[in-house]
Design a protein that fits this description.
Largest sheet of chain A: none
Strand order of the largest sheet of chain B: 5-2-1-9-20
Oligomer: heterodimer
Number of domains of chain A: 1
Distance between the termini of chain B: 17 Å
Number of strands of chain B: 25
Mean pLDDT of chain A: 95
Number of helices of chain A: 3
Shape of chain A: globular
Structural class of chain A: mainly alpha
CATH architecture of the largest domain in chain B: 3-Layer(bba) Sandwich
Structural class of chain B: alpha/beta
CATH topology of the largest domain in chain B: FAD/NAD(P)-binding domain
Low-confidence stretches of chain A: none
Low-confidence stretches of chain B: 1-22
Number of strands of chain A: 0
Strand content of chain A: under 5%
Strand content of chain B: 25-35%
CATH class of the largest domain in chain B: Alpha Beta
Distance between the termini of chain A: 16 Å
Order of helices and strands of chain A: HHH
Radius of gyration of chain B: 22 Å
């Protein structure tokens, strides 16, 4: 998920809205987001 | 998603610099009391806040005060107006929220005593609170547009609160003779979900084009510019020659209505309407006046980290009612703000410092069935104000292929299903 969000941020992964959203987050924040989603059942 | 958090040290630094306005009260939990939180308003913001408070800390005593037993959602209600969607898909009950341990009280709040910290209900009962969360949405101002009062709204619906008004406007459009003129009036900012007014213009134009092809739509607007403007204007050009937008600089500012004559006036002209949809200026829902949290603008200034009122300590204001800097008045933002507020309140009643938040808003608009686009933003508090994170967010590409619009229309549906399931499901 970290890789995917970073790819959205860099514009390397096709997106409609996630590219625009991912640009608002740092590497640390992306890791925190991924960790939170990873912990969900 | 409510996004990532800054670490605690950063937050304490910002408090020292004066960004965090709230003083932390004595911890209630440590004293052995069960902290009592009352939430007024069971819409996207309030229902989220109640549910997430209980989820964050099951020991909290959470009351949700909402007079209506069924919630009517505004997002996608424009599709209902245009005959493209069943109203029943907009309706949600509170059973699952109650099942999570929230006490759902179907009463109107008629008074707030900020000294005694009590809320009075229509049936005379009183609820005590340690912290009060107000999420009453926005109310039409029936003193703002000459001729447009509560009775006028029964002839010229605003349909800016979903429910009976939505169905009234739909029935009027269906009953209208082909060849009639529909007139919409749009207010100046701020108001609830401005892009939805242009989405509505599109979908009413779609209805006319497909069902009443000799009819037209005139949109009188108190603005010259608006969100996603190029996307909307391109859609109007492509699909809706029957739609005429009159911005304020062309004399479009709505100046009054005459219900008996069925006319809507602007700076320059008076238009005879077969159907009139008047979206009036708005203010924070009425309970904010009872609580004293609204300022002269009619809206409620609030701290961005906790959403605590800047005027009345111990009361938090969420959703459309709050003045939240760059954050739009949308269901998405109300839901995100409610999660931030719930986390902050759960910490505050334990005497802990809240965590600095960051969150996302995305608003989808449909210009036609299967033709959607969006505006997104990422927000964080800077010097006590919500600001947009630079370099992030923005609108859908103006030159995107049709498949992209189709995909965003599907995502709009997905968003609605997800957010309503999270809150009410």
């Amino acid at each position: 998920m970290v890789t995917a969000l970073q790819a959205f941020r860099a514009g390397r992964r096709p997106a409609t809205v996630m590219d625009r959203i991912a640009k608002g987050f740092s590497d640390d924040e992306i890791k925190a987001i991924a960790a939170w989603y990873g912990a969900q059942p | 998603m409510t996004g990532a958090h800054h670490n605690r040290r950063e937050f304490i630094t910002s408090v020292a610099m004066g960004a965090g306005a709230s003083a932390f009260p004595r911890p209630l939990v440590a004293q052995g009391a069960q902290p009592r939180i009352v939430v007024i308003g069971g819409g996207f913001a309030g229902a989220t806040a109640a549910r997430f408070l209980k989820r964050t800390d099951p020991r909290l005593d959470v009351n949700l005060v909402e007079p209506n037993p069924i919630f009517s959602a505004c997002p996608f209600s424009n599709e209902v107006i245009a005959g493209l969607r069943d109203m029943r898909r907009q309706l949600f009950g509170y059973d699952r929220i109650a099942g999570d341990g929230v006490v759902v009280v179907h009463q109107a709040a008629t008074g707030v005593d900020v000294q005694a910290r009590t809320v009075t209900l229509r049936n005379g009962a009183k609820l005590n609170y340690d912290r009060l969360i107000l999420a009453p949405g926005s109310d039409p101002r029936f003193d703002a547009l000459p001729g447009y009062d509560e009775a006028a709204a029964e002839r010229m619906p605003h349909a800016w609160k979903a429910g009976a008004q939505t169905m009234l406007l739909r029935r009027q459009l269906e009953a209208m003779d082909d060849g009639g003129t529909v007139v919409m009036a749009l207010p100046a900012l701020p108001y609830r979900c401005p892009p939805a007014s242009y989405e509505r213009a599109c979908l009413i134009a779609y209805f006319l084009k497909t069902r009443k092809p000799r009819s037209k739509l005139i949109v009188l607007d108190a603005k010259d510019t608006f969100s996603m403007q190029r996307l909307f204007e391109n859609a109007w050009k492509e699909f809706y020659p029957n739609l005429e937008w009159v911005p304020v600089s062309s004399g479009g500012n709505p100046t009054g209505v005459d219900v008996a004559a069925m006319t809507v006036s602007s700076d320059f002209e008076t238009y005879k309407a077969a159907v009139a949809n008047i979206i009036p200026p708005q203010r924070a829902g009425r309970v904010t006046e009872l609580a004293g949290t609204a300022d002269r603008t009619g809206w409620c200034p609030a701290d961005p980290v906790t959403f605590e009122s800047r005027l009345v300590p111990g009361i938090h204001v969420l959703g459309d009612a709050a003045i939240a800097g760059a954050v739009p008045k949308s269901a998405f933002a109300g839901n995100a703000a409610a999660k931030i507020c719930a986390a902050a309140v759960a910490r505050l009643v334990r005497g802990e410092a809240p965590i600095e938040p960051k969150f996302v808003n995305t608003c989808y608009s449909l210009a036609a069935p299967d033709y959607g686009f969006s505006v997104a933003g990422v927000y964080q508090p800077v010097n006590g104000q919500w600001l947009e994170v630079e370099g992030a967010g923005g609108i859908s590409p103006v030159d995107a292929p049709r498949a992209f619009r189709s995909q965003e229309a599907k995502f709009a549906n997905g968003w609605f299903n997800t957010i309503t399931a999270e809150i009410f499901g």
